[in-house]
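Practice problem 4.
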């Protein structure tokens, strides 16, 4: 699944690694793909022939649940699903089932239907899933603010005047 700037960066890395990069989106045309050195294919073809399916879409009513049991069943047993866009684009229960049954090789996720991912969520024990916190916000300003506040919190706690308390 493809969509925006993130998609273009993934496409570039894939090409540089010698991958045959294919793409599909309801809004993507074969001509636009050709301009970027990518092959446009039908959605079911993309799912059934890809070794790695990387999702780069905005969450909307049209994309919510776009990857569910039917779509996961189309994927090869050796394929990996990567979702760094929005959790609800993939039906989590169907993904957990596919991972547990081994109908796909694995998944790489940094987005979930509920964030942070609950401690008891079955994805946390999936041996064939790599899970991280959502890092799509990575910008210099966000790091400066986040790390700056972390240091500020530690110093305030050490001085006995903690800040940003959670009740």
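Answer key:
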């Amino acid at each position: 699944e493809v969509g925006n700037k993130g998609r273009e960066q993934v496409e570039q890395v894939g090409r540089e690694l010698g991958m045959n990069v294919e793409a599909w989106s309801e809004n993507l045309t074969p001509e636009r793909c050709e301009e970027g050195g990518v092959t446009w294919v039908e959605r079911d073809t993309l799912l059934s022939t890809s070794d790695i399916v990387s999702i780069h879409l905005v969450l909307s009513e049209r994309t919510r649940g776009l990857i569910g049991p039917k779509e996961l069943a189309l994927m090869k047993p050796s394929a990996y699903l990567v979702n760094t866009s929005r959790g609800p684009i993939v039906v989590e229960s169907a993904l957990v089932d596919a991972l547990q049954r081994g109908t796909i090789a694995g998944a790489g996720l940094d987005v979930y239907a509920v964030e942070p991912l609950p401690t008891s969520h079955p994805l946390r024990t999936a041996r064939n899933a790599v899970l991280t916190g959502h890092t799509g916000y990575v910008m210099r300003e966000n790091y400066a603010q986040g790390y700056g506040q972390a240091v500020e919190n530690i110093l305030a706690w050490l001085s006995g005047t903690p800040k940003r308390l959670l009740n």
